[in-house]
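To: structure subgroup
Subject: Chain for Friday's discussion

All,

I'm putting the inputs and outputs inline so they're searchable in the archive.
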Amino acid sequence: MKSFSQNIWIPLLLLSNCLGLAQEINSKGDAYFFQYDYRQAIIEYEAEQLGQALSAQQQLNLADSYFKTNAFDKASDLYQKLSENDSVMSGHHFNKMLQSLSRTDQKSKVDGLLRSKTGYLSKELMENAEFNRALVQSEAASDGLEYQIFNVNTNSPQADFSPSFYGNYILFSSARTQDKKRRYQPTGEGYLNIFSSAIRPDGQLGNSVVFDEIPATSYHKATPYYAAELQSIFFVTSNTENGKLVFDDNGKNALSIAKQKIGGDSQLLFRDLSTSFYYPFYDESTERLYFAANFDEGYGGTDLYYVSTNNGQIMSAPVNLGPRVNSPGNEISPFVFENSLYFASDVFYGLGGMDIYKCNIESRETFSIPINLGSGINSTDDDFGLIMRNEGEGLLGYLASNRPGGKGNDDVYGFKVDEKPGLKTLILRGQITKSNLSSESVQEAQITLKDNDGNVLSETFSDEEGLYRIEIPWQESVTVEVSKNRFSRYSETFAEEDLEPFATQDLNMGIAAYDDLIEEREGQKVIQLEDFFFDRGRTGLTAEIITELDKVVQFVKDFPAAQLRVETYTDSRGGSSTNFRLTQKRSDNIKDYLISQGVPDSNILYSIGYGEEKILNNCTNGVYCLEVLHRKNQRSLVVVLNDNVLFD
């Protein structure tokens, strides 16, 4: 079978006279390359380079030709050579290079290249790659579902793809020839058209007929999506005027998106002679129209976008779904089902060419890590265009694939499964703040997830606003730890029922900043407390004192390795021995209270009453002083004895 690029990607590019890349044809190799005859292009390019060196662009064309014909060893070698010249290697070609290396079991080189490009690749791409590659190598990669996958009866020897529900029918695109005199030159197949087939009770499809609700055209019509609420079909079509193809200044004929009201008028929604639009999908719950497009400012080949609509009328500019979804590869065929986005991508860490991925829609603008649906749905070839709906006690779905055993190039396959496809993941997100000052965020705090045995599952760091996000395969329980140097440590274990709410709510966590909680007094580091005073001649703890001592209790909880000394002093009034006994009892009472509130006895090394030994001012025996000056000597301190080694 041919590759995805030859079957579906190329027909949908619709390049006039094979000049869509706006490159000048200088040789037979160029001519065959732009005609998508990659095998003959290889022959000509290899012959030409015996006489003179190929240009950098021609070498890139040759590398692409190797890639298209599954000669991944040669493709990877040439891509790596060309990668030294950033002027010709786009992010899209970087993805092809990594794909080639992955398909030749050179994953160590993939890792090395990724590390070398860390500063240039998005954080999201690196996280996505690490997550999905770890899944492939672990038992957690399986969602435990059993799929009943079947090739549908309506497939032809030509390309059949992009299924869509239309009541109890399936609409799909096909290159099967209707008019033998009219063929699309690059593939030799018919121009794409839209067909319909009835869904039988077992999920199989009946006889297919041309879908006649959309006016006939001599050129491409493809990738339909039926929006029941709007009673309309969204689809892509060739750019034409007066029944003839129209081209941009570079000789390119692109695809536009149109909307056909059932029984009504057609309306052209997107048209740009230099940009192709693919695979429209309308989400009724949000009134968003999703699609794929190859805008120049995208992340790779084609990216996924959406526009806001009002009753199907476009109300916003296209919004890129961002680097969590889009990659240096191609992303196509978006489909939203039960708050999950399904789409296809040929990003380098997949199982084959195009694979189907699922990510959760966390908010209107954010998505979880896209997860490869695995070998239950995907093959080592191209798989794309997944749709599904609830049917009976399970799900009925369809997709397109060029996996072995089909009837033609790309075939439509049906599948039945008990539950929604896709591995369940645990997503924790929120903000790290100072527990003693929640309005202040903590950046570069380390968030670690551990399993029941204490094994690290994943780690991340909070950003400059204290925000974090971390995602792992679902766990029945997990311990979350937060740490940063000179801060307290947060640790909490959550059972499965405790984790469920975090699908929709944040987990905000606070850690205490040590340096905010201590101060230097009298040449030593002490816990920062408001000054408090015992009643004159008394040793009992007042409510005011307890309020301050509770701060010490929390401090020890935050910093359990702290070693403390309780010190109490009085003024010079009264006998010195009496003052000594008074302050000792006060220190002992402070210690007893702290222990009663959970402070381990081992944390309080000393409780000492100094009486009037350390007068801070001139208010010594026999000196008249105002009460406010005497009070300066009536003080209690909680000293951190191991301050200098606490964080070593």
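Points worth raising on Friday:
The two ends are 63 Å apart (CA to CA).
DSSP finds 13 helices and 36 strands in the chain.

D.
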